[in-house]
Fold:
Amino acid sequence: MIVWLNGTHGAGKTTTAALVGQLLPDARVFDAEKVGETLMDISPGLPATDNFQAWPPWRPLVVETARRVLDYTGGTLVMPMTVLVEAYWREIHAGLAEHGVPVRHFVLHADEDTLRRRIAGDTVVGPDSPFRLAYLEPYAEAARTWLHAEAEVVDTTHLTPAQAARHIAEAVKG
Structure:
């Protein structure tokens, strides 16, 4: 099974994913961003884009990597990855379904003020990352139009990552 943690930057995906991985038996965390980083390392580079998800190989490579890891290890893959383009999500989800891989899709949500505060205080990427801030509106649009209807929404505005992780782990187990 895959537990996919979606949501925009600052919602708590990476931190929560690590904690969910500790709470579920036989779980591993797989950040599909690493597939994008591999594609970014190709030289000479692939056609210019502001988001590696737009490269057609990224989506099937995520599916193939996830299913192959699950075939090898069994258990659960916890995947923290923002996917805000509905067509991309549908392609990934359909690809996993073709291989019989069940997906529990969660969206970690926080209100915009909370997201801005978290992005401002980010110690990993750095404060007020223009990249992270640029995704606030696309996230809000996706949330309004399709994303929240496609997933189990966990509002992290007033939750710690540990509380969000317990909520997700209990939902998956129960």
Summary: Helices lie at 13-23, 33-40, 58-73, 86-98, 112-120, 130-134, 136-147, 161-173.
